[in-house]
Specification:
The complex is a heterodimer of chains A (235) and B (297). With 235 residues, chain A is mainly α. Chain A has ten helices and no strands. In chain A, helix 5 runs antiparallel to helix 7 and helix 7 runs parallel beside helix 10. The relative contact order of chain A is 0.15. In chain B, helix 3 runs antiparallel to helix 4 and helix 4 packs antiparallel against helix 5. The chains are: A mainly alpha (235), B alpha/beta (297).
């Protein structure tokens, strides 16, 4: 069986195993999108207040996890046990890693579709500023999502050690906080506004570059995950 | 190069952990034989099985399965190994019907009907979620999985733990039937003397990550005995084969060379009351101090 065939079988198993989590995540991103859509209204104002920074931070934090499941202790525990089970079967590591990456991609597409659709419907700014070019905004965001969400398969190989989970999660959050502050206070770049402008002026090119970087990031995380699965570190 | 007459071969296999070291282990299991792996909890048995399944890559040494190394094709090697790990995990959301379907993707020789027959034999409800089964029942499912395809080697990590005596008998019967296939081999971790007696050809003792020795079962059971005597002779500790002496009336001697000890006792005109085979854990316990003494020399 090829790695692709293996990955599709495993993807089907994961979807049957965690169907409730898939539904829950879709609902969650609908709710987040409603919230984000209402926050978008501040883009219409002239005065730049703290919430504006919060909007940037909000997007920078949420967009990277669009392709990830909804975490819980029980979920991660069952995930790591599943990985251990699969590593006792004649499943290639390539097939296993590919299945986890496809899982991220599929979730990114499903959750991202809901997320961006709701925001578009809720936000007059997006409709007025971008119209049909909103698709470029979505694709730029999707590249960013792929780059960081593909971190998830690597993260779940840490899931047998609670300290590793918390530490890596804190680092992940702190990293985006630092990044948002860097954009705002050092580089003087307002992230959402800038992405809207890029989508309007250089949409196709920026989308291709963003998706390419997203896939490059996915490849990097897949490589790291494979190394980890081939070692004894998930036990 | 390893020869493929060996079902399994370990050469200097070593694995380091923060507080535990397994090996170096040199071990050979030829085709057509069953080897029992005996060791106390924490001796490294499950770690050894994970090394054999390439879940843990060794830090030193090499594992050969039928002369092949995992780096030459992990998937193909695993397709020919029936493995029962120490715990049933990772498929609790499925019932046995779904598991049958899922596993048939990975093993080219998977036999669905054989799996169902085994489920029937082990009295497992195929429609019940595996996560809702008792631990003993989950164990039976794992065992059914290991026997439901054509394999060359069975790696069974305490397969009969949590099983009732009837199920144990059924499992041992399955292993015996499996070995009728001739060219196969089994490595089974166990604490049970009865299991060793019934199915093993060789016994390997593992203690704190170190292999204390591999013994031919019949020779082991014939030679390691406890001998009850009316009175202990002078210098009983020095008699050939004696590894332990318990004074009293009657006295008790533990020997690793029963025949030689018996002859010496007869020469000393000491009446022998009873000769009994030792339990595996007792033999293991006597092997340990022996090893420590040798280590100090």
């Amino acid at each position: 069986m090829s790695a692709w065939n293996e990955a599709l079988v495993l993807l089907g198993k994961d979807m049957r195993r965690h169907w409730f989590n898939w539904v829950l995540t879709l609902v969650l991103f609908t709710f987040i999108a409603l919230n984000a859509g209402s926050l978008m209204e501040i883009l219409e104002g002239e005065v730049r207040t703290f919430p504006f920074f919060l909007l940037d931070f909000y997007f920078m934090m949420i967009t990277p996890v669009i392709g990830c499941p909804w975490y819980s202790g029980k979920f991660t525990q069952s995930t790591i046990q599943q990985l251990r089970f699969l590593r006792s079967l004649p499943v290639s590591v390539d097939g296993l890693v590919l299945s986890r990456m496809l899982l991220v991609f599929l979730r990114a597409v499903l959750n991202g579709s809901i997320f961006y659709l709701v925001i578009y419907l809720m936000s007059d700014v997006m409709q007025a500023e971008l119209g049909g070019r909103y698709i470029w905004y979505v694709l730029i965001g999707t590249g960013y999502t792929l780059f960081f969400s593909s971190w998830y398969p690597y993260w779940e190989t840490l899931a047998h050690r609670p300290l590793s989970i918390w530490l890596s999660s804190v680092i992940f959050l702190a990293g985006f906080a630092v990044l948002a502050m860097l954009f705002w206070w050092v580089l003087d770049v307002q992230v959402i506004e800038t992405v809207i402008r890029i989508a309007r002026e250089h949409g196709p090119l920026a989308s291709v570059i963003s998706l390419a970087l997203g896939l490059l990031g996915s490849w990097f995380w897949a490589w790291l995950t494979k190394k980890r699965l081939m070692s004894d570190q998930i036990y | 190069m390893s020869t493929d007459t060996h079902a399994l071969e370990l050469r200097g296999v070593t694995k380091f952990f923060e507080s535990f070291e397994l090996g170096p282990i040199d071990l050979e299991l030829e085709r057509g034989y069953v080897m029992a792996l005996v060791g106390s909890n924490g001796s490294g048995k499950s770690t050894l099985f994970r090394l054999l399944m390439n879940q843990y890559p060794p830090d030193k040494g090499e594992v050969f399965v039928r002369g092949r190394r995992y780096r030459d094709g992990e998937v193909k090697i695993r397709q020919r190994i029936g493995f029962v790990p120490d715990a049933a995990i990772g498929h609790d959301e499925m019932n046995a019907i779904q598991l049958n379907d899922f596993l048939s993707h990975w093993y080219p020789t998977w036999d669905r009907q054989c799996f169902y027959d085994l489920l029937t034999r082990f009295e497992i409800d195929p429609k019940k979620r595996i996560g809702n089964l008792s631990r003993g029942m989950q164990r039976r499912v794992m065992i059914a999985c290991a026997f439901a395809f054509d394999s060359d080697l069975l790696l069974l990590d305490e397969p009969t733990a949590n099983l009732d005596p009837f199920a144990v008998r059924a499992v041992l019967d399955e292993i015996s039937a499996y070995m009728d296939g001739g060219d196969r081999a089994v490595l089974i971790a166990t604490h049970s003397m009865d299991e060793v007696r019934r199915i093993a050809d060789y016994v390997a003792f593992l203690h704190r990550g170190q292999l204390l020795g591999v013994f031919e079962k019949d020779a082991l059971l014939d030679s390691w005995k406890e001998i009850w005597v009316e009175r202990l002779p002078e210098g009983a500790e020095e008699l050939p084969g004696v590894v332990a002496v318990e004074p009293g009336v009657p006295g008790r001697l533990v020997t690793k060379e029963c025949r030689a000890t018996e002859q010496s006792l007869l020469r000393e005109l000491v009446p022998i009351l009873k000769v009994q085979t030792l339990e595996l854990d007792e033999i293991l316990a006597y092997l340990m101090p022996k090893r420590r003494r040798e280590g100090r020399r």
